[in-house]
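Researcher: Re-running this chain for the archive, since the previous output was lost when a drive failed. Same request as before.
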Amino acid sequence: MTRIVVVSAGLSTPSSTRLLADRLAAATTEALEEVDLVQVELRDVAHELTDHLLTGFPGPALAAAIEAVRHADGVIAVTPVFSASYSGLFKTFFDVLEPGLLDGTPVLIAATAGTARHSLVLEHALRPLFAHLRAVVVPTGVFAATDDFAGPDLDARVRRAAGELALLAGKVAPADAARTPRRTVADELAAPTPFEELLRRASEG
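Model: Regenerated structure tokens:
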């Protein structure tokens, strides 16, 4: 069974960030045959994150969230845009992860904002962050402005990104083929998979 952990940094209830996270989770679940889906809502561990920064020890809820990410086959990471970048709550969670915890883990990055002017946050903030953490970031990131939730284009991007995450997390086509081991960072550096090939496999899945 493939374990997918959804990390959402929305602050309000409900939030557009959680709405996008749920749509990405649903599409990834549909793309995979068997999924153990774990939701990590960062607003619920905000106080424990602050305590961890000050003491070096995570509280029980934060410790459980970190352990979920540690054992994930794939991560969906969604943040609202604050001051043209990821939120402080989002960054703090990934700051407290021990070095190497995300090595080789496929990560689908996504962000929400009130306007499309912030769409490049995926490329100038989120992708470099997870590259630094040595995760394997899926080719398609998903940005959703407020107006995008009412249009059809967002669904297409969600499905494409979910298909890529499913592929990197271990989905194989055809169904009777042996499970392909997850590629590590070293594998990607030695023989990177061409972008066109990732898209072709995702569309076939």
